[in-house]
Amino acid sequence: MSSSQQANGSQDVREKTRICITTAVLATEVMRRLGDLGGKPALRSAILAGDFAEAECLVTDPGIGADAAMMAAMPQLRLIACYGVGVDAIDLKAAAERDITVTNTPGLMADAVADLALALLLASARDIVAQDRYVRTKQWTTPAASVPLARGLRDKTIGILGLGAIGSAIAERAAGFGMTVCYTGPHEKPVPYFFVADLHALAAMSDFLVVAAPGGAATRHLVNRDVLRALGPAGTLINVSRGTLVDESAMIDLLRSGELGFAALDVFENEPQIPDELLALPNVVVTPHQGSATAETRLAMAELVLANVEAFIQGRPCPTRVVIPSSQQGR
Known about the structure:
This protein is an alpha/beta fold. It has helices spanning 3-16, 28-36, 44-48, 68-72, 92-97, 110-125, 128-136, 165-176, 199-205, 225-231, 248-257, 276-279, 295-313, and strands at residues 19-21, 39-41, 57-60, 79-82, 101-103, 157-161, 180-184, 194-195, 208-211, 236-239, 262-265, 284-286. Strand 4 (79-82), helix 5 and strand 5 form a beta-alpha-beta unit.
């Protein structure tokens, strides 16, 4: 085949490929390149209405995902490319039953999420939000006004739920502050930190408990009322993983009663809908799910999405295909 024929063949593939893009946070340049490949933005309602019945590729993110109904409305779908690591919002069983490849963007966001986890930890320990408000409201100029003394980090204990890439990056940073690092997970790892098999016991010994484990049905409300009570009135919960890991109602009750000292949260159980009673509490710091939100990280993630899509179009193995557990394959 001549080079011109090869070029035409490649162009034919691109013209036939239809890409449905539901995520609005892809880097502009990558979004343009996806458009060059036949990509078109879409809302979930449009997908369910059948407007993308001929789409072969769905680019989505952990907040939108892809459920069985979306897949059913896209009978030609062969690839789901997730702009993020978490795939708990993607029905992996339905994807496996239809031989749909699922990809994600692992190994890129650990540093950014760990940075935010430490920022939330510092904001809670040093009362940054309250002290900012103290200055802005001119209380500093009032002789009788004062702010409570904050907490230092050296020799404090940080407990980490989930010592994967993100948890390990958090541990590394916390150790640099002179903290004692403990962790829990499915098994002990060859790391210079203390393994605690029981989450309740980990919470009881921790000044700060950081949630860095994957979301999904298996971990839903893993941080329950008993765990939060064990963390106690001097303890701080930090969540940079998924809101579903924490029993949010129990957390609000305990924060209100003082049985839990503080919460610093980047994720929520039903985000972006956050209970007013949580936002009204003075012992809470919140950010809008910004763990990976640095320009460098988001661009790298977008490029990896593009690499997966281009590999799919060209008939090559996708660089970061998600291995679907046999328990979810339904076969």
